[in-house]
Amino acid sequence: MRVFSASSRHFSDLAVMNAHRFCLPFRTPAAARARAIASALKRLAGRALPGQCALCGNLSQELLCEACDAQYWNEPRLRCATCALPLVASLMRREREDVRVHCAACLASPPAFNDTLALADYRAPLDTLAVELKFRARLAAGETFARHLHAAFEDSDLPVPDVIVPVPLSRARLVARGYNQAWAIARPLARRMSVRGDASIVARVRHTSAQSRLDQQTRRRNVASAFAISGDVRGKHVGVVDDVMTSGATLDALARTLKLSGARRVTNFVALRTPKD
């Protein structure tokens, strides 16, 4: 019995070519093929089968139906230009020739950041989107926040940042959660603004307690030395992105670290702002 191999002079060139052709598809790992097929099926199902609006539950091809998407982002809210705290007329302050309004706290003790752009208050029903993004990996909410932040930025007179960074998570929290919700907003926002987005410039070098459980003074101490800068930010305007701004202690500490590293200006882009510090 004669045994043929690819190197055998008795094995035809055509057979060798056909063998290679039939083996090529099987060089792709099965897991990679399965992921590609699953991804394609998911995209196809998303186009063919409507889902539910995350806010009202009505049928929708997108995260939000057209009615909810049009309704909840146009809140007529006067905010402090520095920290985005909602203001009432009695709390409005102006600084010399500055036509923008500021809260008394920011004028008395200015934070390290220069400006804050917020979409809306952290309250129902939009708080649902922040919770879904942060704890349930509904990353489509990050895209939605980014789209509306970009629209709000286009309507503002704020300068364009040189680079956009997310508020980083500690390594322990990133491993536990599997993703950074701030980066889920920052990356599409940077793309829409045609600005470089970089999640490696800022690192959280100290694991801190959850800010929501602490009072305002403890929050500031909690994050006072939590960040480190690994990239060159000298002379740059840095846009910092976060999902929710409460007291501003985290963003203040991060902006202070950026300024100490040479950043010229820091602007916060936050999806939702609590009505009170």
UniProtKB/TrEMBL annotation:
Q: Which residues form the Phosphoribosyltransferase domain?
A: 184-271
CDD domains given for it?
PRTases_typeI
Q: Show the InterPro entries listed in the entry.
A: ComF/GntX_DNA_util-trans, PRTase-like, PRTase_dom
Which one Pfam family would you cite for this protein?
Pribosyltran
Q: Which family does it belong to?
A: Belongs to the ComF/GntX family.
Record-given protein name:
ComF family protein
What is the organism field in this record?
Caballeronia pedi
